[in-house]
Amino acid sequence: MECDPVSPAVELTPAAAGLLRRLRADHGPLMFHQSGGCCDGSAPMCYPAGEFRTGGSDVLLAELAVEGVSERVPFWMSRTQYAVWAHTRLIVDVVEGRGSGFSLEAPEGVRFLIRSRLVEGNG
Question: Average pLDDT, stretch 47-73?
Fold first, then answer.
């Protein structure tokens, strides 16, 4: 599936890219999925690639290039969540503290989160 060309851009902070390199070394190829759940369910979850099944209710927003990682990291979002975020640039960051989800970084004592800013003139 190709990324939607009018979707919001997704980018990584240096801290997020560093964590992805470590997770890739331990777990192999990775993927993100962000659902529309409450609390940690609305945070980006990082899984081994293919571990979270995506389908027609999901949108591939980006395939993130991470320096030091040979393959791109797909970033998926549920369509309902995408409708809310459609006019924003998503920035994947890392903060201290443990989320309660199943994301790979949980044992590291950190968690991924989304920061955002509005994008003007999205089509």
Answer: 95
Please, which residues bridge with residue 101 across strands?
Answer: none
Query: What distance in Å separates the CA atoms of residue 51 and residue 60, rounded to the nearest whole number?
Result: 15
Residue type, 89: R
Mean pLDDT of the chain: 86
Mean pLDDT of 60-81: 94
Cα–Cα nearest to 32, from 40, 20, 22? 20
Q: What is the pTM of this model?
A: 0.85
User: Token pair 């989800």 is at which residue?
Assistant: 101
For 110, the enclosing helix (H) or strand (E) is: strand 110-118
23, 43 Cβ separation under 8 angstroms: no
Residues 22, 48, 33, 61, CA torsion sign: positive
Task: Report the C-alpha gap between 3 and 121 in whole angstroms.
Answer: 19
How far is 4 from 59, CA to CA, in rounded Å?
8
